[in-house]
Amino acid sequence: MSEAGTRVQPRRKGLSRRRKRAVSQGVQYAVFVAALVALGLTADWEQLRNQFAQVDLAERMFPDIITLALKNTVLYTLSGFVFGLVLGVVVALMRLSSVGPYRWLAGVYIEIFRGLPALLIFIFVGVAVPLAFPGTEIPGGTYGKVALALGLVAAAYMAETIRAGIQAVPKGQMEAARSLGFSHGRAMVSIIIPQAFRIVIPPLTNELVLLFKDSSLVLFLGVTLEERELSKFGRDLASETANSTPILVAGLCYLLVTIPLGFVVRRLETKAGKATK
Amino acid sequence: MTTENSRTTENSRTTGNNQNTGNSGGGTPEIEVRGLHKSFGDNEVLRGIDLEIASGEVVCVIGPSGSGKSTLLRCVNLLEEPTRGQVFVGGTEVTDPDVDIDAVRRRIGMVFQQFNLFPHLTVTDNLVLPQRRVLGRDKEAAAEVAAENLRRVGLSEKAAAYPGSLSGGQQQRVAIARALAMGPEVMLFDEPTSALDPELVGDVLAVMRMLADEGMTMMVVTHEMSFAREVADRVVFMDGGVVVEEGAPERVIGNPAHDRTRHFLSRLLDPAMAQVQEGTPDGPDESP
Q1: Which of A177, A185, A186, A117 lies closest to A149 in space, CA to CA?
Q2: Nearest CB to A176: which of B108, B116, B133?
């Protein structure tokens, strides 16, 4: 029943290719619907509703989940992002330096902090450092610790992104700047980095989304009631009430931010794609 | 062969240019290249170049691709570091390791084949930013100089546009204006019209001609033979990393003394004919 055979003797027996595909798709849809129906019939809806969608419990979370928890999540994320960005630019410039030890140091930094779990770094900053050096105080309290831990991780990723952005600026830009009398450093700051940032805005926004989620690791630092962010806030309330609704609400709060941000990233990427053409 | 000759015989434009004594005269040349060598790895691109360009002189450097002419130009403002030899601009040794190269480059304007405008800045800011950052001019003074130079290249109406919205010819004229805004004593042109559509070449050449008429010292790497013939005081033909011959344009282009020059020119003017010649036994001399 080779292809040539069917063409010579068209549709003598069996189904045509198109027909076969339609049948196959129909079967897949049928299985999917059957699974949904089975799930609907067997699930304990009462139990699910009680566990995940207790309206009065959800209502009790407001406004604190916004004014306190979401606010703290945003603050942690932004402080980590800003610190990470500054450190990331420095590491990226070291990576591109003509001085060997700088390049080497930056490479080691990137490899280490990309290779470690963010959680371990949070524990390191929150537990190991205070244990090892009693009396040292990281400025800014919890916010300082989070900025440090998140920033250290973010800087390693951002440094590679920024380095790629700087290298994506055409060589002629540096030559033009130098020929006008700019020093190398001035040309970097005035001409190259502004252009590199335009290139790396979409990936950096992506990094912001990742940080937003990673800020939940604050959970492991031990924070006061006023310093709780979304995950801790949701978990505390969940264990307090022995109900999962707070977790669901906290999750929705994350999505409230991450989905629009993801949309912005895709818009920026298509825009950047058009601009380079 | 001397520059005086070409000026007096051919150039009615050089009025009051008596300080220009050419490369055989007594004044300090604006650009002086001595024994210049440049290698990229094992590839020796420049094999001992000696060249002098007097103040107010327009020199066109011609030659086949790979002859080292762009590298020579880029060695003048040290975009390429020479392997050996010396370069002087306005009496300052550019190749001196202790020289403040940024200070020297302020006096040398450069125009690139690919324009290299700053795409994130408007046309005006392309001219204003270097003046402010490099020369320390205040905002008003820089804006004034920018407007004046845009007017000179005929692009005042594009002051607020971004480079991406301009044609290649317009971008190149902005690039010339940007270099001029720094008040250079010398202008280097690296194949300024090679990346342009043929119908846009004329506008750029017109601006360069205007600069030449104003007495700017210019070193131009180009394939535009008509420009070289009409505007240059001297034409330098390079091949294989050496200067093969130089002299007045009507002599070098009109009646070249060397086979290599003749071969290059015939290829340039009539590529089909050159191929026929190449096939003949007494064709162009290929010996180095």
Answers
A1: A117
A2: B116
